[in-house]
Amino acid sequence: YNADFDGDEMNLHVPQSHQTRAEVQELMLVPHCVVSPQSNKPVMGIIQDTLLGCMLLTQRDTFIERDLVMNLLMHVGGWDGVVPQPAILKPKPLWTGKQIFSLVLPKVNISRTNITHGDADDTPMSVSDTKVVISSGVLLRGIVDKKTVGSSAGGLVHVTWKEYGPRRTDELMSRIQVVVNHYVLHRGQSIGIGDTIADDATMKDVIETIQKAKAAVKDLIKKAQKKELTLLHGKSMMESFETEVNRHLNGARDNSGTSANKSLLKSNNIKRMVSAGSKGSFINISQICACVGQQNVEGKRIGYGFKKRTLPHFVVDDLAPESRGFVENSYLRGLTPPEFFFHAMGGR
């Protein structure tokens, strides 16, 4: 319910007649609310740990030994007692994660791409296993992520709902979570400071990008002071100046973020969460590793709160990025006191 304790209230309604109770049960029972009439797509799906687990379990190089397979089979809801044939027999029997995942699926057919699928990859069998194919309840290929088991239209949850109804959809989500969470528990999944550190060459690139943007802004300030700035259509000198400054500073954040993102390996734990769709985004990676970027209050750079300055530590009428809320450090490197204060202003 996303409730917090700053005055939020909740109300309880108690239906009392048999007619009302029956009506409310039909309308409000959770499995009956999986697909929302608002946009005719599910509002529930697999999230967080389980979503990341689905991605890890269904990767091509996930092989599971007999002892863990036996443990996982004990967690498969409605298991028929048949142990599937291992995909690899010698030197020892190994089952693929896709085989285990298939055990909890209903007999549905789905064909779709996942989050990391590139438009250029139009071959029937994708190199990086980004095309998901489920045929008669068997996952044949593809890494399962948010686009398949999340609350997306035409995903696994939606198709199961349409083919088998609310109860089977409810069972599917519960079964996926029990099996996948048990796998994640055994496999282990962690994240540490090491996952946020980019290599030296990347950091050099990031610093250069930010310095270039700051130099460009310095140039803009000189032009504005000499009234040589090219005005944008329908904007005053100051508005044009602010727009241009924002363009340069946001560009610096995005470009430095892109190089930081490229330097992280596929096995990086932040990158894993982003590519599974379970947590985080490109902007989080760039702020953690490269540069937090411009802080805004009501859509503008930090304004003058004191007499013609943002804080007592800056000179009067300072238009430079630092004094108007540009945070050039990353969360990893740490913010300076003025940066921290501006960041706190932007947050609330």
TrEMBL record:
Output a single Gene Ontology CC term carried by this record: RNA polymerase II, core complex
Q: Which GO terms describe its molecular function?
A: DNA binding; DNA-directed RNA polymerase activity
EC numbers for this chain: 2.7.7.6
Coiled coil regions in record: 203-230
This protein's name: DNA-directed RNA polymerase
UniProt-listed SUPFAM superfamilies: beta and beta-prime subunits of DNA dependent RNA-polymerase
InterPro entries in the record: DNA-dir_RpoC_beta_prime (IPR045867), RNA_pol_asu (IPR000722), RNA_pol_Rpb1_3 (IPR007066), RNA_pol_Rpb1_3_sf (IPR042102), RNA_pol_Rpb1_4 (IPR007083), Rpb1_funnel_sf (IPR038120)
Per the UniProt entry, the signal peptide is none
UniProt-listed Pfam families: RNA_pol_Rpb1_2, RNA_pol_Rpb1_3, RNA_pol_Rpb1_4
Looking at the record's lineage, which domain of life comes first?
Eukaryota
